[in-house]
Amino acid sequence: xxxxxxxxxxxxxxxxxxxxxxxxxxxxxxxxxxxxxxxxxxxxxxxxxxxxxxxxxxxxxxxxxxxxxxxxxxxxxxxxxxxxxxxxxxxxxxxxxxxxxxxxxxxxxxxxxxxxxxxxxxxxxxxxxxxxxxxxxxxxxxxxxxxxxxxxxxxxxxxxxxxxxxxxxxxxxxxxxxxxxxxxxxxxxxxxxxxxxxxxxxxxxxxxxxx
Length: 211
Known about the structure:
CATH architecture: 3-Layer(aba) Sandwich
CATH superfamily: P-loop containing nucleotide triphosphate hydrolases
Number of helices: 6
Structural class: alpha/beta
Number of domains: 1
Helix content: 25-40%
Distance between the termini: 9 Å
Order of helices and strands: EEEHEEHEHHHEHEE
Strand order of the largest sheet: 6-7-8-3-9
Number of strands: 9
CATH class: Alpha Beta
């Protein structure tokens, strides 16, 4: 069943500093349909996100959360529907669309032979409290620390749209709270966040799409 979502900016807390780049944007999905192999897994998905919007994807394993995120990133083709960025076709220029996205998939995409400092600026490491591990090869980091490093890479990229697939996997309670602060800072600067997660999250005006 189609779901229409509007989310705006409404936040007053103090949050980690994330540099602001560019202007604010609008994202719209209109009646998206997505196949996985030869099976239609999502049909008629519609939503809109204004600057500062946060959309959380919920659903059982296999419901299509990852597939929707991949389609929004332009990594999986749409069977039907249209994705709009500032009311223009977002996927007409795949390279330009990729340049506006901060992507975090199931895999951390951390380079194990490199140190965190060789992969992420020190300022971003501080935002996820990894600065004391800055010079340690990433292969020695725990699973949760690698996930925090992956989140720091998204933050450091300064993209207007974050697409995050189970970003809280492996995070302890304190790290989840820190992640929420980073999401709040992203929305405070007019950015948008779309994330799939089974973790209960608490953000003002957070919208939920159950698949």
